[in-house]
């Protein structure tokens, strides 16, 4: 019975470790893509490719804020991991990151809509 | 202690979010009559996002490399009043 328990515990830990690595990599790539998108939109706003309207100004600043929040939570996760955080604390930190990431699709869609609203310049 | 199902659920959530972001920047409605300039700009945006996705696939994930994902700190020019 104890042997079965230990095997189960090891398996769950392995899933957590592998899952953590997959989760980290996907999260990192997601934030890299959103960062590039938002930075490009800022450059296009500054150059006039996106019309400099109040709506565009607000949308891009909102995108930057959302990206910052997501990155900050991910940094907190990596810091907790580097400090040898418990599985419970790392899971909580992962949840914080995932919640922050959930805002990004809508934010990115709003940024993309700015190009269409501009009508091409 | 995290269960296997909760860990897998978190992974699936992040994968879903990443798919949604990439498909959002890549999608171009074929029925929309957009000026060429807009199409070019949107395609450029998609290429930028996809290139960043690919380029980051091998980046070591550390506190420093994650911190580097912050957006451009330069403030936007405020719109004309």
What's the short story on this structure?
With 121 residues, chain A is mostly helical.
What attributes does this structure have?
heterodimer; A: 121 residues; mainly alpha; 87% helix; elongated; B: 81 residues; 0% strand
Question: What does this protein look like?
Answer:
- The complex is a heterodimer of chains A (121) and B (81).
- The model of chain A has no long low-confidence stretch (mean pLDDT 87).
- The longest helix of chain A is centred in the N-terminal third of the chain and has 46 residues, at 2-47.
- In chain A, helix 1 packs antiparallel against helix 2.
- Chain A has helices spanning 2-47, 54-82, 87-101, 104-118.
- Helix content of chain A is 87%, strand content 0%.
- The N and C termini of chain A lie far apart (71 Å).
- Chain B is an all-alpha fold and 81 residues long.
- The chains are: A mainly alpha (121), B mainly alpha (81).
- Chains A and B meet through helix 1, helix 2, helix 3 and helix 4 of A and helix 1, helix 2 and helix 3 of B.
Helix content of chain A: over 70%
Q: Could you list the spans of chain B in which at least 5 consecutive residues all have pLDDT below 50?
A: none
**What is the overall silhouette of chain B?**
extended
Q: What does the main sheet of chain A amount to? A: none
């Amino acid at each position: 019975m104890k042997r079965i328990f230990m095997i189960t515990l090891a398996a769950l830990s392995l899933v957590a470790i592998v899952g953590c690595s997959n989760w980290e990599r996907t999260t990192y790539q997601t934030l890299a893509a959103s960062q590039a998108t938002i930075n490009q939109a800022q450059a296009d706003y500054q150059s006039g490719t996106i019309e400099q309207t109040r709506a565009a100004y607000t949308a891009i600043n909102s995108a930057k804020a959302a990206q910052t929040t997501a990155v900050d939570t991910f940094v907190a996760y990596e810091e907790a991991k580097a400090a040898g955080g418990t599985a419970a604390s790392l899971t909580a930190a992962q949840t914080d990151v995932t919640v922050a990431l959930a805002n990004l699709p809508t934010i990115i869609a709003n940024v993309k809509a700015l190009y269409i609203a501009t009508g091409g310049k | 202690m995290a269960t296997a199902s909760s860990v897998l659920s978190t992974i699936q959530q992040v994968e879903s979010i990443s798919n949604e972001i990439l498909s959002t920047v890549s999608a171009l409605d074929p029925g929309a009559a957009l000026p060429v300039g807009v199409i070019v700009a949107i395609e450029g945006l998609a290429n930028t996002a996809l290139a960043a996705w690919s380029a980051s696939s091998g980046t070591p994930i550390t506190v420093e490399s994650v911190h580097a994902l912050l957006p451009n700190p330069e403030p936007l020019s405020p719109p004309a009043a």
